[in-house]
Amino acid sequence: MSVFRETIELAFVSVIVDAVVLLLFAVVRAIVPSWAPTVRLLLRDPGRYGIDHLSSVTAWGAGLLVVAAALAAFAAGPRLRRRKREHEAYASAWTLLFSEHPGARIHVGCLLDDGSYATGRLRTYSRASEDGQDRDLTLTGPISYRGPGDTDAAVLPDVGAAAVSARRLTLLTVTYQPVAD
C-alpha cells in the first residue's frame, strides 16, 4: 500500500473511531446526565471545572481513550483485514501473489537472468505498489540452488536466508502450503 493511501486510511479510521466514541459519550450523557461531565461547563471554564471534577474528567477521558483504542485495534485486526482485499489496480503483482492464501506457507522459486534457480520459503518482500526493478524479496531455509546450466538443485548447507533482487528475476513461481494447526 502506498504511504499516501495508508495515511488516508489511518486518518479515516481515526475520525470514525473518534465519532463513535463521542456518540457513545453523548448517549450516556443524555440517558444518565449525572454520570458524565457537563461539557458546556467544561468548555466555559476548563480550569475550574477540571479542578472541581478531576476524578470524573480523568476517568471519562481514560475510559473513552481505552474504548477508542479498542475500536481501532479491532478495525486493524486480522479478521477485518482478511476480508478487505486491496484493489488490484493499486497492488503489485507480488502483493497479489503473496496474499492470495492468507495463513498459507509460501514457497517461492526464482529463475534468474543467468539461468540459475533459487527456491525457499518466502520471508519478506517489498510491498511497494509499483512492480519496479529496485525491490527485493527474501527467502528462508532450506534454500535450494541450481547453477546456470546445471540440471539438479541442491540445498545450500548452513544457509538460512537469501535475498533476491527483482532486477535479476525472469520468472517467479509460488506454491501455497496450508499450515497445520
Automatic annotation (TrEMBL):
InterPro entries: DUF6338 (IPR045919). The chain crosses the membrane at residues 12-36, 56-76. It comes from the Bacteria. Keywords: Membrane, Transmembrane, Transmembrane helix. This is Uncharacterized protein. It comes from Amycolatopsis acidiphila.
